[in-house]
Amino acid sequence: MNSRMEKYQQIKAYLESFINYENNVAFSYGESFKLERVKCFLRDLGLSYQDLKVIHVAGTKGKGSAATMCADLLAGSGYKIGLYTSPHFFDFRERIVLKTKDERRKTRDDRESGKIKTTLIARKAVVEIVENMRSYLEKWRDRKKFGCLTFFEVYTAVALKYFIDKKVDFTVLETGMGGRLDATNVVNPLVSIITRIGYDHTDKLGTKLADIAYEKAGIIKENSLVVCADQKRSVYNVIKKKCKEMNSKLFVLEKDFNASSVKLKNSYTKFDFKFNEVSRKNIKVRLKGRCQVDNACLSMAAVKLLKDSGDLKREINFSGINLTSIEGRFEVVKRNPIIVIDIAHNQSSFDVLKDNLKEYFPNKEIVLIFAAAQDKNIGKMLKIIKYKHLILTRFNNSRSAVPEDIKKKFRLKEAHITRDVSNALKIAKRLYNKDSLILIAGSFFLGAEAKKALNRL
Question: What is the pLDDT of residue 284?
Fold first, then answer.
């Protein structure tokens, strides 16, 4: 290992030394997430993050897709975009990327899709930023007044610093959990996007949809623009009230803008988009499912509002949305045998997964490889999918539910038990036949480990 890589590995280990609530179920949301701590920390760093032009995205289902589509639309229109999402599949640098419209030679850190180049933050940049922050990080690691600085808060600071250094034209930030107390909520966005809200993290955000909506709507700032998915009445009322309090303008899917003539194909989805005077026919997206049409519309509406407000000087290249490709979103990773990975991890996303299975693979017998975090509503998730065979496993994270416990609690007598996804795949292939489909779902972490395992097999 050369000295540069060794230094990067040391910095990576240092970052991982901060408390990580993605790997922990037992914590108090209100006590552990403190936005004031993040604001004070960033102020101490001297980061001019309020100079960034931000699109902020929250929601239960589809926020990662909507954020990436928005970034691709802007990049496809000729802008340099900073995109911050979470979690990641293989490398934490996937969370902090630049997107540009570029045809230059591909490097190891470039993941090109059409004419949009996605560049992960360089290891060198990670080392330099963290080393420059290190004295501040140690100062803020555990202050009695504010509590422990978390790894997500540190990553958010690194992302903001990187985007400032790179002089991006726009920054797209996806929230982690919730919104109101999320580390990304220090910004004053030009546009906020709120995707479909459903039940998730109910032990932290609340057991009622209105309570969850209150947390998500916390990203809405004064005198801003808000783009919102079609929501249940209780959710809509919370968001509408928040917009009124903040004197922000609310634009709602199916009310102020919409998609029509939706055609779901195996390799793409096509639809028409309309928002006031803007009308575009035959918009294509690669991501599968009707839900991705909604996410596309949200991102298109947000970019259209940026144009109307004068923040965009160039014409919008709406075809840029066809370049969006995201891992783990009903992704067919193999055709023989057919293996689909979906990061569905709550009741809402399993409902969408069920619809996608019916649309793209009707009459297929499902061999389901399942693992989930302990705090998820596992019983409801498993009832949604009509599987022929069930293989319960776990992922390498302390949040993972124990497969034996799932089998016992929900009386799943016929379920197969295995301790890791590699063995689960071997069992699934033995159960597979020409009428089958192997589905891997239940957790983002499971999807990531499945991809690694498939690369090894």
Answer: 94
Q: How many domains does the chain have?
A: 2
Q: Residue 32: how many CB atoms within 10 A of its CB?
A: 15
Say yes or no: 403 and 314 in one domain: no
Are 66 and 174 within one domain?
Answer: yes
Mark whether 168 and 81 lie in a shared domain: yes
Give the pLDDT of residue 166: 98
**Which pLDDT score is estimated for 105?**
52
Range of the domain at 440: 331-456
Q: Is the pLDDT of residue 131 over 90?
A: yes
Beta strands in 353-404 (DSSP E): 365-370, 389-392
Q: Which two tokens stand for residue 149?
A: 């600085």
Are 83 and 113 in the same domain?
yes
CB atoms within 10 A of CB 59: 29
34 φ/ψ angles, rounded to the nearest 5 degrees: -130, 105
Indicate the pTM of the whole model: 0.94
Query: For residue 304, what are its two tokens?
Result: 């259209």
274 and 343 fall within a common domain? no
Give percent of the chain with pLDDT exceeding 90: 83
C-alpha atoms less than 13 angstroms from C-alpha of 45 in its C-beta half-sphere: 27
Q: Nearest-5° angle of CA 102, CA 107, CA 108?
A: 135
pLDDT of residue 409: 96
- The residue from 274, 289, 323 where one domain ends is 323
